[in-house]
Amino acid sequence: MSSVPDVPRESTADRERVPTDRERARALARARLERARSEVSAGASPAFVASPAALLDGPAHVVVHGNGPFLAEFGEACLGLPAAESLLALPGVAFEVMRRVYVRGTPLACWLEISGERRRLTAAPRRDVETGEVYGVAVRLAGPGDATR
Question: Which one of 4, 104, 107, 140 is most buried, by most CB atoms within 10 A?
Fold first, then answer.
């Protein structure tokens, strides 16, 4: 009679869990957030610091960075989420502007009505330095008291 060595069976707890698409997207957003933060810390303009501004990533416009005024207005919960899911105060035209900037690779701006206040949305493409490929959009909302608009 042959003897078969005892081989411990792998339990489901020991198996590596496969991350969901949402978890992978959030991990990618966190990595790009770190990259964006390093870009910003390298020298943010006074306009970026004074009014709500954010860096969005990919065709879903995942919010990877927001300055202080942006996070105060939209909340930190928007980080790592697509703009359309997290920036609910923005009218639909804002998302169309972001989409056009991402697809065309040219900056655009428009006037919006947000909570009864007239605001200027400016959106510019974010490009990979090596390939020139658009990978995201930078947005800024200027308000009535913003001296840098």
Answer: 140
